[in-house]
């Protein structure tokens, strides 16, 4: 089945993806449950990858039950009549957001959320956008314009010409960028850069950006697509800085890893253009009842089971143990391997893309799945679920100890 699948991918899906899958000898996935994925041959892998989607693991029973129930009632909305799911899901999402966030618009993906965030900036008079080096906000045209990696941007140039990038955590460069513009300025950032290699932006940098946005009468757009929903040890990564964004982008874990669902949430002032005319932005499939049932169930689990606290605890344990393993090995390895972590968003920086590839393959061969970092190829990411067992953690530690001897 594997060869047949790869041939079909090569012929009808994507040649380069099929070629890479063949070179890496990637198995064919078959089923999943909790923190585990099973391949077509019955071999089980621990999923420490998933790009931040599976904070509740695979097929959380409460989320699956909600989706099955909604499937029998009404999976898609008429888009003409009033959707009760949209009303209740919007309130449930807003209830866990920072104070002053009042409105929600549901989308299908993080990139779609970024696009709407940028449209809200334009609709609120922001003619210029300031983004951050190392950022990743998606690969659609607008999202790509504020994503900082030339390999992704160059083939699609010219992109938006009103975007300026400032160096991560460079407060003076940030101030200088804002002073160039008289019109309102929008600032977009991830409080913790996931694809950038798991870098948490500084308190001073983020607070300066918020103050400058207020002074320019612009918008502070916070991308919590990967860092939010308990992933980094608090419900939202920005909570640690006591900042309320004007616009916040939500995704990844919003539907418990069961069905695509993302969102944009905003203050009343930032959302005003859409409140004035709801037809300014719409989506045929965004905010479908079946996706919203998953989102509501996910939020119930996040809050009732204190997932943010679990993420903080487990993340600290994993980072400490991985650092212990690195330090116990030779001095050269300890100098070349840096562990960065915020809750269950963890980056293993091994210095070069080649070594990151070797680490990925070594862990894969020991049945540990990881995520690469799209804007920092030297960093291997761990984004596991919050329900890891002691045995599963022990399997990770043993695999990592074996792997670092081979890179």
What is the CATH topology classification name of the largest domain? Aspartate Aminotransferase, domain 2
Q: At CATH's second level, what is the architecture of the largest domain?
A: 3-Layer(aba) Sandwich
Largest sheet: 7 strands, mixed
Q: What is the level 1 CATH name of the largest domain?
A: Alpha Beta
CA distance, first residue to last residue: 32 Å
Count the domains.
2
Radius of gyration: 21 Å
Number of strands: 17
Which strand-content bin applies to the residues? 15-25%
Helix content: 40-55%
Structural class: alpha/beta
Q: Which strand order does the major sheet show?
A: 4-12-11-10-7-5-6
Q: Spans with pLDDT under 50 lasting ≥5 residues?
A: none
Individual helix count: 15
- Mean pLDDT equals 96
Shape: globular
Identify the quaternary structure here. Answer: single chain
In CATH, the homologous superfamily of the largest domain goes by the name Type I PLP-dependent aspartate aminotransferase-like (Major domain)
Notes on the structure:
By secondary structure, this protein is α/β, with parallel strands linked by helices. A seven-stranded mixed β-sheet has the order 4-12-11-10-7-5-6, sandwiched between helices. It is globular.
Jot down its keywords.
407 residues, alpha/beta, Aspartate Aminotransferase, domain 1, Aspartate Aminotransferase, domain 2, 2 domains, seven-stranded mixed sheet, four-stranded mixed sheet, Class-III_PLP-dep_AT, PyrdxlP-dep_Trfase_small, transaminase activity, aminotransferase, pyridoxal phosphate
């Amino acid at each position: 089945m594997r060869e047949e699948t790869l041939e079909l991918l090569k012929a009808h899906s994507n040649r380069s993806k099929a070629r890479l899958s063949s070179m890496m000898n990637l198995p064919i996935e078959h089923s999943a449950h909790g923190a585990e994925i099973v391949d077509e041959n019955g071999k089980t892998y621990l999923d420490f990858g998933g790009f931040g989607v599976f904070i509740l693991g695979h097929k959380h029973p409460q989320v699956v039950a909600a989706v099955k129930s909604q499937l029998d009632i009404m999976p898609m909305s008429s888009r003409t009549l009033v959707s009760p799911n949209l009303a209740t899901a919007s309130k449930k999402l807003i209830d866990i957001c920072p104070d002053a966030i009042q409105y929600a618009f549901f989308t299908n993906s993080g990139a779609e959320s970024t696009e709407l965030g940028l449209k809200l900036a334009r609709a609120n008079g922001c003619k210029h956008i300031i983004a951050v080096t190392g950022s990743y906000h998606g690969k659609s045209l607008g999202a790509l314009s504020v994503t900082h990696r030339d390999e992704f941007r160059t083939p699609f140039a010219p992109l938006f010409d009103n975007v300026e990038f400032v160096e991560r955590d460079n407060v003076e460069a940030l101030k200088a960028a804002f002073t160039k513009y008289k019109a309102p300025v929008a600032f977009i950032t991830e409080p913790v850069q996931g694809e950038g290699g798991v870098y948490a932006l500084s308190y001073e940098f983020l607070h300066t950006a918020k103050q400058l946005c207020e002074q320019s009468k612009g918008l502070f757009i916070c991308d919590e697509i990967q860092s939010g929903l308990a992933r980094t040890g608090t419900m939202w990564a920005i909570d640690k800085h006591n900042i309320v964004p004007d616009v916040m982008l939500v995704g990844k874990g919003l539907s418990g890893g069961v069905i695509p669902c993302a969102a944009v949430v905003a203050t009343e002032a930032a959302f005003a253009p859409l409140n004035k005319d709801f037809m300014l932005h719409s989506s045929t499939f965004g905010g479908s009842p079946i996706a919203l049932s998953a989102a509501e169930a996910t939020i119930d689990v996040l809050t009732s089971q204190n997932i943010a606290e679990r993420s903080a605890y487990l993340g600290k344990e994993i980072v400490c143990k991985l650092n212990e393993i690195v330090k116990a090995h030779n001095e050269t390895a300890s100098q070349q391997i840096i562990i960065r972590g915020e809750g269950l968003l963890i980056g293993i920086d091994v210095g070069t893309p080649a070594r990151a590839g070797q680490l990925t393959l070594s862990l894969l061969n020991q049945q540990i799945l990881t995520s690469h970092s799209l804007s920092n190829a030297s960093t291997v990411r761990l984004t596991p679920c919050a329900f890891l067992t002691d045995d599963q953690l022990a399997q990770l530690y043993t695999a990592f100890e074996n792997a670092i001897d081979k890179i």
